[in-house]
Amino acid sequence: MHVAIHVAIAENGVIGRDGGLPWRLSTDLKRFKADTMGKPIIMGRKTYEGIGRPLPGRLNIVVTRDKAWRAEGVEVAHTLEAAIQLATVRGRRMTGVDEVCIIGGGEIYAQALPLAERLHVTHVLAAVDGDAHFPPIDPDAWQVVSSREIASGEKDSHATRYTVYERRREIV
Ligand SMILES: NC(=O)c1ccc[n+]([C@@H]2O[C@H](COP(=O)([O-])OP(=O)(O)OC[C@H]3O[C@@H](n4cnc5c(N)ncnc54)[C@H](OP(=O)(O)O)[C@@H]3O)[C@@H](O)[C@H]2O)c1
């Protein structure tokens, strides 16, 4: 099982504002839904509360330090490592699943980046104001394996570039 990050990032590193997304990207949400469908998804408690419900058709795992926190339709983990472990064990039993998806937000991405092997990044082609960020993607550590430009559709606030990165293997 690979650990993969799925994220949309503005040119200035912003990923969120006031607990929500600072853009409307309907085309990208459809692509995100298709890419994550049937897989385990891991998110921070704040991202879960921003969405307000489990994402259908996926094993939802919420990470919180609050031992009393619960929500219907989601599994709870108290460390990121425990969430990845749970997702890996459960994912192995799901047919055709080879990826654990980390879906945010800023706190979780910062901790997951060193553990990830693949990044699915929607680059939002604008600088946007916000209060949650993604760390810089180091080109020495990550290579682009595919990239495509997506024009802004009727229900999209911005044009985007969808890029998949894989961690460079160390040459010894
Ligand atoms: N652009 C995108 O692709 C994207 C994707 C997802 C989210 N977002 C945005 O990101 C923002 C939310 O990000 P955020 O950084 O504020 O919050 P977050 O990462 O979603 O959640 C943070 C919470 O996760 C829990 N947590 C974090 N690390 C933990 C650990 N090691 N062990 C146990 N629990 C841990 C804590 O919950 P407790 O406080 O309950 O202990 C913490 O308060 C929102 O604006 C959202 O819309 C953007």
UniProtKB/TrEMBL annotation:
EC nos: 1.5.1.3
SUPFAM superfamilies (alphabetical): Dihydrofolate reductase-like
Top EC class of this enzyme: oxidoreductase
InterPro entries: DHFR (IPR012259), DHFR-like_dom_sf (IPR024072), DHFR_CS (IPR017925), DHFR_dom (IPR001796)
Gene Ontology BP term (one): tetrahydrofolate biosynthetic process
PROSITE patterns, A to Z: DHFR_1, DHFR_2
One Pfam match: DHFR_1
Keywords from the UniProt entry: NADP, One-carbon metabolism, Oxidoreductase
Domain DHFR: 2-167
UniProt pathway annotation: Cofactor biosynthesis; tetrahydrofolate biosynthesis; 5,6,7,8-tetrahydrofolate from 7,8-dihydrofolate: step 1/1
One Gene Ontology cellular component: cytosol
Catalytic activity: (6S)-5,6,7,8-tetrahydrofolate + NADP(+) = 7,8-dihydrofolate + NADPH + H(+)
GO molecular function: dihydrofolate reductase activity; NADP+ binding
Role: Key enzyme in folate metabolism. Catalyzes an essential reaction for de novo glycine and purine synthesis, and for DNA precursor synthesis.
Family statement drawn from the similarity comment of this UniProt entry: Belongs to the dihydrofolate reductase family.
Record protein name field: Dihydrofolate reductase
Lineage: Bacteria, Pseudomonadati, Pseudomonadota, Alphaproteobacteria, Hyphomicrobiales
